[in-house]
């Protein structure tokens, strides 16, 4: 805490002053000049106090969004939404299982490849999906994992490279019984 | 209607010259002066010419055919109509630039309709209309479509307000109802010969051809075939036929095609406007040269598009939207190997090896391609199909394709002749190193942020990427760079490597961020830019900046025309330095800076020499703005009221010179002081 012994006779208002910023830090010239309007958050003022020479070792606080900043046009789509595997907030898809009373949701970002995904599905629904083969799909298993792609078609999980699957998968469905066997017989 | 309204004979006495001496230019006959002036294209030069004397003013206004209006509210349609009688092409800009970033409320203005109404009355031979940041309603587009038989080119950049219906009208009326001139002359001559030979059958056939093309109710178009041959022939005498030809008053050699050649829609908002318009082009419409609908969201009829491309043999620019997939793209480009600019659709499709090969071959078949864009969702898997088209490429726009550095570097190895490159910062510094090594001729680089709101904490590009480009691309003169880290030292070196910058737009995305190594303000960086780049016309500053930056800008940036400032400066002095120091300043846009009334009022005389000033979230009050308005009556001082802010603060201020007086169409939240 700041001690203002220098201002002996003063009421030491500075020490008890209510202001934004970490305790013990100086309010720099620059901070005063950046207008603290209702749109920016206190985090922004924090960021501008780097003039104190502190290393920014902590993870950056979630920044408040200021209207019109950075100056990018709104139509310019966030290119990252096209690559959900790098989306830190998760890419959740619905998973339905034939015969189950309700659906589940999983985050595709969590898995690195098909093996991980299938294991997770097996765990979630207490079933055995088995091993994928290009020729026979999941033949031999009672279950077949399928997904709906961007065009609305139902595809067998495992045919395309994982990267491509991640981007085109909209939802999953684990088929069961004769329908599932049908795929394997093709 | 007469395409060339004749200038009235105004006597031009030499005594009009005030100082009495006889200047040599007063002896130049008007016709000669006009002939010479008709060769002057630049509107800046023309504005200078018009100031010389009354003679030259008149000669200039009669010979101006291209109209450029940088701020639609600086002048009114009536004033323009009175001054310029012979306009064939118009470029018109509306809203202030910050409207691109949602800083202007909806319905602010810049409606093109009063202009279109005026053009329809006064410039019926208008050929080109290019609009930027204007609101264009469907009614305006319909009026446009129907009013100009010679209309050739429509360009809408960052415009809004229209939908499928408006574009529908443009497509439907893209062909003039009149018979193409060459053909009408031919038909007239043939008819005359047939009449002389008494070949009535032939005459009737010619008449049928011409009638089928003339929809207007002209006197010759309404005969039924029952009417007697004699009465028909009596109307079609030789003299009558030739008189019609003569009346058109256009020489055979000068006349150009009367149909639409360009439809160019760029940077449209995300509104879904529908895609039915493309199907409205008539089946016999073949003159299209430029078609750009890349920024429109909706799906268009691919069959209609394919037919259109196949019959428009002069098509040189084709930019489709994301709804067109790779298979469809392939079908289009085999029909148009003559393209000079191509904007692809989406690359997200699984191709068979055969399809991949076909696409590769098609791209290789482009002999004249200079610009490539689109490439939505392209992955490293399919990016190589375009390699065959890259050798001659001068402009590569990857701003919709989030490439990684590896695939990007491989691609660049095929593009040695690039002059302009737009990329997303997913390529990172490593990708920019490849730019430096592969593209020595590069003149323009734009790096856009994939993640502007920093939700995923990606690395993006930094000072080292920019440095790498500057080392390899010494001809760089235009840069737009979004980054999260920058140092003064890097920028100093960059401008030493590339002193010819005319446009330097650096955006350090965290507001008020200092040099990340020294923690100093970024003043030295922009001082170096101002000092070293003597040709600098446009500058955008960012990062932690004190008044020092603006002192340097005012002192050294003598050619600066446009300055954008955000979250910078320490006091009024900063803005004052710029207003006092930059003689060529035309556009100044400021947001979130500590500049107040004193700064605003220090630029009184300056604002009349500028196009506009924008200040938002600064320290301006209504009192200060009212004072400005009172002192400078020829400026429009507009305050956009924000419901939340209190009444004494002026949160968004837009100041511009105008000879049209205050806006007549201002919405309730815009106060003109």
From TrEMBL, chain A:
Membership in a protein family: Belongs to the Aux/IAA family.
Domain PB1: 90-177
Alphabetized InterPro entries for the sequence: AUX/IAA_dom (IPR033389), AUX_IAA (IPR003311), PB1-like (IPR053793)
Quaternary structure, from the entry: Homodimers and heterodimers.
Entry's Gene Ontology cellular component terms: nucleus
Originating species: Dorcoceras hygrometricum
Classification via Pfam families: AUX_IAA (PF02309)
Subcellular location: Nucleus
Keywords: Auxin signaling pathway, Nucleus, Repressor, Transcription, Transcription regulation
Domain of life: Eukaryota
Protein name as annotated: Auxin-responsive protein
Residue numbers spanned by region Disordered: 22-65
SUPFAM superfamilies: CAD & PB1 domains (SSF54277)
GO BP term (any one): regulation of DNA-templated transcription
Function, in words: Aux/IAA proteins are short-lived transcriptional factors that function as repressors of early auxin response genes at low auxin concentrations.
UniProtKB/TrEMBL annotation, chain B:
Cellular component terms (Gene Ontology): SCF ubiquitin ligase complex
Alphabetic keyword roster: Auxin signaling pathway
Organism domain of life: Eukaryota
Biological processes per GO annotation: auxin-activated signaling pathway; SCF-dependent proteasomal ubiquitin-dependent protein catabolic process
Biased composition (Pro residues): 1-11
Region Disordered, residue ranges: 1-20
InterPro entries on file: COI1_F-box (IPR041567), F-box-like_dom_sf (IPR036047), F-box_dom (IPR001810), Leu-rich_rpt (IPR001611), Leu-rich_rpt_Cys-con_subtyp (IPR006553), LRR_dom_sf (IPR032675), Transp_inhibit (IPR041101)
All residue ranges annotated as the F-box domain in the record: 28-69
Protein name as annotated: F-box/RNI-like superfamily protein isoform 1
Organism per entry: Dorcoceras hygrometricum
Lineage, broadest ranks: Eukaryota, Viridiplantae, Streptophyta, Embryophyta, Tracheophyta
